[in-house]
Write a structure and sequence with these properties.
It comes from [Candida] jaroonii. By secondary structure, this protein is of the alpha/beta class. Helices cover about 20% and strands about 25% of the residues. The chain is globular. The structure holds beta-D-glucopyranose.
């Protein structure tokens, strides 16, 4: 362990400054002279991607955040955190960049999938349990993004305005709970501003609230390229600028500011202390030097991914008990929809990763049918397309070594040069290539100008017209058998590819291909300094290329309808994908894009037994909800997504998920609708504390599916509510009985509503919850203990403190926000104010 105070004495000013920013994308700066090692960080939050964004070692990927929160299972989330911690160690990672506990303020938020909920308490508990699990393994968690990073629109500059009450009761609350209950060792600041000031350089947030009010002693780091100043950020206590090499904390200029009394030496020392503390926490893990990243194929890990996925799925509708299907019954089932043979493992952006293995919904269902003795006859068709851009064709190509994939050859010289100098050559499994953190021993870390050829052969299964295309940050040209097909080099138009719409639009071309013939595909790429547009980004860039057989939506639709006419049942796997829901941009509306809704409507006209499985991280509109018999909400499901859907469809898992967010009828009904996205660089959280169900309940607005809602294949009875108020806590006890004939899990949701209140308050607010697993006829008594402070307090904007007013409080117990089954009261005998955790 490092002797921090001794090191503060020994380090030169220059060394101290160098410690205050990353060495590269994923490491801190080491000082070998004083045996200070480097700390390794990795995204987060639904798995551990490892140290390479580009061409990383494949990982185990969990269900996305909103799905994990929909399990409402604290123990399970802790186990998920433990597995994340183990994965981190296997990759030599000291710190996981997660969990994300920003608020799902709007269904449109590009990163809503990555966060947990529209409810701050569910969000805070979910984050706390994941952190507890990660840190049980001694790995460090990094709670992010502190605070109000609740939209992607203009995310680095948007100035957020909200009342202190909304800030405290809603947006800071999950951070407060997570810090109180699980003490994450690190915290990442948000990109955005609040009240005119970037949070990453705000004394109000980083000192007054975080350090002084909450007593937080961990290390703070900026989001990637989310440091915006030298002095202000250091003074505020932004300990670490990420990533490296630094953009602001250059040794020469920072030292100059210290010598000229612009930045106090104590400020440097205090920030360095926190970095050394971070290193010490990392050392405690005992990760050896030079760990080679490897895949974790432990069956126990796979079982846990599956359990989390199973418990996250929410049964929204099940008329005539169409589900579960009987896998041994003779019947015919059509499997269709854009997501049936796709693997929507994660939303897009830094939460996504190369996933170690993927089970498509189709594969999951087919496996079960086999288990049942192959009694079910199936037929598949896609029915509608979802692609925003052409699909990833990594698995349709054969690389230069004769295996599935793409061969990448990196060059120092442009394609026109003869005898191009090769930097490196290796194979890849994808055609969506973002080089953000590509490093090669033959490239200098600051070298941004280089080239690559991506090659593979393709043998079509059908003769016809194919659409080829590519978008890039840089320049790219697609060749088939050495003939130029798509030119995204000599002419370029800006588009929305790559994180912040940094790249070009997708350029397309049509080509006739013949079944069985082998075609050599080559994409010649130049990094971003070669680009004609988006030259301002100092990034190596990347290219997304793909192709697909050309068909019209009408052709796909009529194929699907014909199949639906002659099968007993139809399973439609629909929804969104990481192309539509991602870090970097918000959604324009909540509609499922393309022809999917039309497909569902038309299929419903010819088949009465339609089961919809929707995959999305945030609510979508379901204009067909009343016409189908069964609906499942299945999120982005990580590696095991197909297995988990099949488990629920065939009743091997009885669904117990409850929605972590409300599905409104229309996006216009959402409380943030008038104030979402930025207007001239500003956003006003006009709905105040009335986020999600707090708004729908107060305004008595009908919703499609309420917060906390989810059905089961069995029935539960709640009885015997007992509320016992003690000095600081209230014990709420309730008996839950499984009165049906299948084992199942049920969530006990505890809401509070003050009988009288000095200020306007939501109709009720979730304060705690628990989940029980019960066999048929089994009954359990569940006690939930919660502090009086948390049950009763609101933010008093006049005193600038939390206020708990003496009086009566209703305790409402239900299994959904719209299904309160039992009610009682407790009374507090004194009013008090408080600050802190
Ligand atoms: C995201 C962070 C992430 C970081 C590193 C940023 O774009 O906002 O959540 O941890 O990248 O990938």
């Amino acid at each position: 362990m490092l002797d921090i105070e001794n090191l503060i004495e020994q380090l030169t000013l220059e060394e101290k400054i160098s410690l205050l920013a990353g060495k590269d994308f994923w490491h801190t700066v080491p000082i070998p002279r004083l045996n200070i090692p480097s700390v390794r960080v990795s995204d987060g939050p639904n798995g551990v991607r490892g140290i390479k964004f580009f061409n990383g070692v494949p990982s185990n990927c969990f269900t996305c955040g909103t799905g994990m929160a929909s399990t409402w299972n604290k123990d399970l989330l802790k186990q998920a955190g433990q597995l994340m911690g183990q994965e981190a160690k296997a990759r030599g990672v000291h710190c996981i960049l997660g969990p994300t506990c920003n608020m799902a303020r709007s269904p449109l938020g590009g990163r809503t999938f990555e966060s947990y909920s529209e409810d701050p308490v569910l969000s805070g508990f979910a984050a706390a349990k994941i952190i507890e699990g990660i840190q049980d393994e001694k790995v460090l968690a990094c709670l992010k993004h502190f605070v109000c990073n609740d939209q992607e629109d203009f995310r680095k500059g948007v100035d957020t305005f909200l009342t202190e009450r909304a800030l405290r009761e809603v947006y800071l609350k999950p951070f407060q709970i997570a810090i109180r209950d699980s003490n994450p060792k690190t915290l990442m600041t948000a990109y955005n501003k609040i009240d005119g000031e970037h949070v990453s350089q705000s004394k109000r947030f980083l000192q007054d609230i975080l350090r002084e009010e909450w007593g937080y002693e961990g290390t703070t780091m900026s989001d990637w390229f989310g440091t915006y100043s030298i002095k202000a950020a250091l003074d505020a206590g932004l300990n670490l600028e990420m990533p490296g090499p630094t953009r602001f904390r250059e040794v020469l200029q920072t030292a100059h500011k210290v010598y000229s009394n612009e930045i106090h030496m104590d400020v440097i020392d205090e920030n360095v202390r926190k970095i050394l503390k971070f290193v010490n926490e990392g050392l405690k893990i005992g990760i050896g030097e030079n760990i080679v990243e490897k895949e974790n194929d432990d069956p126990a890990a796979e079982a846990l991914l599956r359990q989390v996925g199973d418990e996250s799925i929410v049964l929204l509708k099940n008329e005539n008990n169409l589900l579960p299907l009987n896998k041994s019954e003779k019947q015919s089932i059509a499997i269709m929809g854009p997501n049936a043979k796709a693997t929507q493992d994660s939303g897009g952006g830094s939460a996504s990763m190369a996933v170690r293995y993927k089970i498509t919904p189709y594969d999951g269902i087919m496996k079960k049918i086999k288990e049942g003795g192959d009694n079910i006859v199936t037929e598949y068709t896609i029915g509608a397309l979802l692609d925003k851009n052409l699909p990833d064709v990594g698995t349709s190509l054969t690389n230069k070594d004769g295996e599935t994939g793409v061969t990448a050859t990196f060059y120092k010289d442009a394609p026109e040069v003869t005898d191009r100098r090769v930097i490196e050559r290796f194979n890849l499994s994808t055609s969506k290539l973002f080089l953000a953190d590509f490093k090669s021993p033959n490239l200098d870390i600051n070298e941004l100008l280089y080239y690559a050829d991506f090659e593979g052969s393709f043998v079509p299964e059908e003769t016809g017209t194919y659409i080829f295309g590519c978008s890039c940050l840089g320049t790219a040209q697609v060749f088939i058998d050495n003939k130029l097909i798509v030119d995204n080099k000599t002419k370029q138009v800006r588009g929305d590819a790559f994180f912040l719409g940094m790249g070009t639009r997708e350029e397309l071309a049509e080509v006739q291909l013949t079944k069985g013939q082998k075609y050599e595909i080559r994409v010649e790429f130049g990094t971003s300094p070669t680009a004609l547009v988006a030259k301002e980004f100092k990034e190596p860039g990347g290219v997304f290329f793909g192709f697909r057989y050309k068909s019209t939506p009408e052709e796909e639709l009529s194929k699907a309808v014909e199949i639906a006419k002659k099968t007993d049942k139809v399973i439609l796997v629909v929804g969104l994908s990481k192309e539509w829901e991602s870090e970097g941009f918000d959604r324009p509306n909540i509609d499922i894009p393309g022809y999917t809704n039309k497909l569902i409507e038309e299929v419903c006209k010819v088949n009465k037994n339609v089961i919809i499985i929707n995959q999305s991280g945030a609510p979508v509109a379901m204009p067909w909800a009343s016409k189908v018999q069964s609906i499942l909400q299945a999120w982005y499901g990580g590696n095991e997504l197909g297995n988990t859907m099949a488990d629920v469809i065939f009743g091997d898992h009885n669904p117990s998920g409850k929605l972590s967010l409300t599905f409104p009828n229309r996006v216009e009904d959402n409380p943030s609708f008038l104030n979402f996205g930025s207007t001239n660089g500003k956003v006003w959280y006009g709905e105040d504390v009335y986020i999600g169900y707090r708004f729908y309940e107060k305004t008595k607005k009908d919703v499609l599916w309420p917060f906390g809602f989810g059905l089961s294949y069995t029935q539960f009875e709640f009885s015997n509510l007992k509320v016992v108020a003690k000095e600081d806590v209230v014990d709420v006890t309730v008996d839950v009985k499984n009165t049906g004939d299948k084992e199942g899990g049920e969530v006990i949701q505890l809401y509070i509503s003050p009988v009288d209140s000095a200020i306007p308050r939501p109709v009720k607010e979730l304060k705690n919850f628990d989940k029980v697993l019960l066999k048929p006829n089994e009954s359990k008594s569940v006690t939930i203990t919660t502090s009086i402070k948390e049950l009763t307090s609101y933010w008093d904007g006049y005193k600038n403190k939390w206020a708990s007013d003496k009086g009566e409080y209703k305790v409402l117990i239900g299994n959904s926000s719209d299904n309160i089954l039992l009610e009682d009261k407790f009374e507090t005998t004194k009013s008090f104010n408080w600050l802190g955790l």
